[in-house]
């Protein structure tokens, strides 16, 4: 029986099971992702990530990302820092390029064990989010409790950012799942409740598409900073305070967004083969 090694990593408590599929290809069916992600009967994680061989010479590896519900997605900021840390340690270098479904991301070692990732270009056009039809992406026609007048941003994945007076008071477990499946978002959406504290600081809570409330969301933090900046509420450097800690987000003049934060290796283990057997091939 082939046992599959995994690493458990996290970025500010947004946690991942990381599999290495570079030497031997790993195909993980949605049911297997759900089994592995299950916190009661599996390993437990918000996302499952498979490192694969680079698809283009400009990248060091490809990163495939699955939400806990088994759906494959284009981007995950916190996981990108974690995979970058692994690759940089493996190669003994200070920078790597990681290919994702959303593009090639340049990553570099920062001070204090942190990792910086250029998450690529932010997109604001309705068809790029994507939305179901043309609307002003600065003023979404959605209202759910305190979540009103949101901003749509794509960071390689869709985000609906709502500015609120008190982020702690938002009943995110109620509103989040409803906004996630609002028909305006044909591919569903991540949902952020954001309170602007000053021109350089916001507090953000997140309901992630396909994973629910998480401790932190890297792409969500980028989306929150970008939306706040578009509305003139913050400057180009924003500290985003999440349940699990802080990310530094910098909106670059070329339209890209730079995210800096920690990448933590929690432990290594071996997957119970019955988890992977849930409809997967290897
Ligand atoms: N936690 C991630 C985002 C993971 C994907 C997201 N739930 C989606 O469906 O797009 C991050 O740190 O960015």
UniProtKB/TrEMBL annotation:
Molecular function as annotated in GO: diaminopimelate epimerase activity
Q: Which residues bind substrate?
A: 14, 47, 67, 77-78, 157, 190, 208-209, 218-219
Q: Which GO terms describe its biological process?
A: lysine biosynthetic process via diaminopimelate
Instruction: Decide whether keyword DNA damage is in the record.
Output: no
Known EC number: 5.1.1.7
The positions annotated as site (Could be important to modulate the pK values of the two catalytic cysteine residues) read: 159, 208
- Keyword Cytoplasm annotated: yes
Cellular component terms (Gene Ontology): cytosol
What keywords would UniProt list here? Amino-acid biosynthesis, Cytoplasm, Isomerase, Lysine biosynthesis
Q: What is its main location?
A: cytoplasm
Q: Where in the cell is it found?
A: Cytoplasm
Pfam families, A to Z: DAP_epimerase
Catalytic residues of the enzyme? 76, 217
* Alphabetical list of PANTHER family matching this protein: DIAMINOPIMELATE EPIMERASE (PTHR31689:SF0), DIAMINOPIMELATE EPIMERASE, CHLOROPLASTIC (PTHR31689)
Q: Which family does the similarity line name?
A: Belongs to the diaminopimelate epimerase family.
Q: What is the protein's quaternary organization?
A: Homodimer.
The task this protein performs is described as: Catalyzes the stereoinversion of LL-2,6-diaminopimelate (L,L-DAP) to meso-diaminopimelate (meso-DAP), a precursor of L-lysine and an essential component of the bacterial peptidoglycan.
The protein's name is: Diaminopimelate epimerase
């Amino acid at each position: 029986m082939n046992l599959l090694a995994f690493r458990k990593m996290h970025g500010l408590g947004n946690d991942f099971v990381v599999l290495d599929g570079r030497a031997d290809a790993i195909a993980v069916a949605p049911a297997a992702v759900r089994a592995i992600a299950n916190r009661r009967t599996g390993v437990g994680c918000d996302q499952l990530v498979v490192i694969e061989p680079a698809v283009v010479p400009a990248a060091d590896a490809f990163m495939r990302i699955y939400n806990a519900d088994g759906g494959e997605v284009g981007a995950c900021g916190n996981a990108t820092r974690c995979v970058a840390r692994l690759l940089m340690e493996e190669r003994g270098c200070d920078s790597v390029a990681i290919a994702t479904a959303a593009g090639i991301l340049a990553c570099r070692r920062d001070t204090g064990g942190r990792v910086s990732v250029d998450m690529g270009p932010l997109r604001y056009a309705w068809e790029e989010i994507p939305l179901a039809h043309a609307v002003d992406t600065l003023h979404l026609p959605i209202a759910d409790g305190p979540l009103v007048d949101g901003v749509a941003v794509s960071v390689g994945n869709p985000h609906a950012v709502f500015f609120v007076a008190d982020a702690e008071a938002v009943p995110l477990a109620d509103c989040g799942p409803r906004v996630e499946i609002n028909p305006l978002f044909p591919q569903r959406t991540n949902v952020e409740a954001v309170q602007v504290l000053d021109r350089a600081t916001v507090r953000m809570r997140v309901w992630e598409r396909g994973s629910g409330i998480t401790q932190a969301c890297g792409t969500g933090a980028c989306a929150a900073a970008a939306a706040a900046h578009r509305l003139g509420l913050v400057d180009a450097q924003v500290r985003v305070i999440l349940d699990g800690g802080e990310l530094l987000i910098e909106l670059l003049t070329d339209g890209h967004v730079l995210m800096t934060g920690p990448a933590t290796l929690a432990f290594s283990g071996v997957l119970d083969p019955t988890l992977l057997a849930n409809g997967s091939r290897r």
